[in-house]
Amino acid sequence: MAAFPRVWRAYLGVLQKYPLRTMACTTGTLMCAGDFIAQVAIEKRGFYRLQKYEVKRSLRFLGYGLILAGPIFGVWYAYLDKTFRVSKFGNWKMVFFDQCVFTPIYLLYFFTVMGALKGDSWAQIKVKIQKDYFDVLLTCYKIWPLAQACNFTFVPVQHRVLVTNVVAVGWNTYLAWKSASDDES
């Protein structure tokens, strides 16, 4: 346990020096972890099981988080903080814009990009969105408004992506399972 404070200080140093890169690496790593959990714990995949663990799928989540999601979240949270922090009810305005503006667009983006990375056609991506988008969005609204209210109220802006990612390990497990749910059929 004595190593944790050193690791935390090192993380903070890297975060301060390279904020977007650090957020990107953290997001990619934890999105990959969510997919790993989905495959092993929910889908019962494994290296020695009947259904093989899909390394390429986990790498898609790693790449998506590293190249796209991490930087997007970092810039978005900084924008929200700059725009709404000083206003009356600023935290609640951030939650509103995050959940009512960003989230619906982001989920469309997620399904589109992950489908394209998987090699799906535009028609397949459209069917996936029509089938799963509203279910995922409604599930999102059961978790994220409260999580983001706490995040925007108690967490400094430079740590919000990390806090979101920690909460999102479970969420990414769900997203990974949901985005792959038609692959077996």
Set down the secondary structure blueprint:
Blueprint: H1 3-17, H2 19-42, H3 55-84, H4 90-118, H5 122-154, H6 160-179
Helix pairs in contact: 1-2, 2-3, 2-6, 3-4, 4-5, 5-6
What's the total number of strands? 0
Order of helices and strands: HHHHHH
Helix content: over 70%
Structural class by secondary-structure content:
mainly alpha
The stretches of 5 or more residues where confidence is low (pLDDT under 50) are none
Kindly state the mean pLDDT as a whole number?
90
Shape: globular
Taking the alpha carbons of the first and last residues, their distance comes to 45 Å
Count of discrete structural domains: 1
Subcellular location: Membrane
Keywords: Membrane, Transmembrane, Transmembrane helix
Membrane topology: Multi-pass membrane protein
Protein name: Mitochondrial inner membrane protein Mpv17
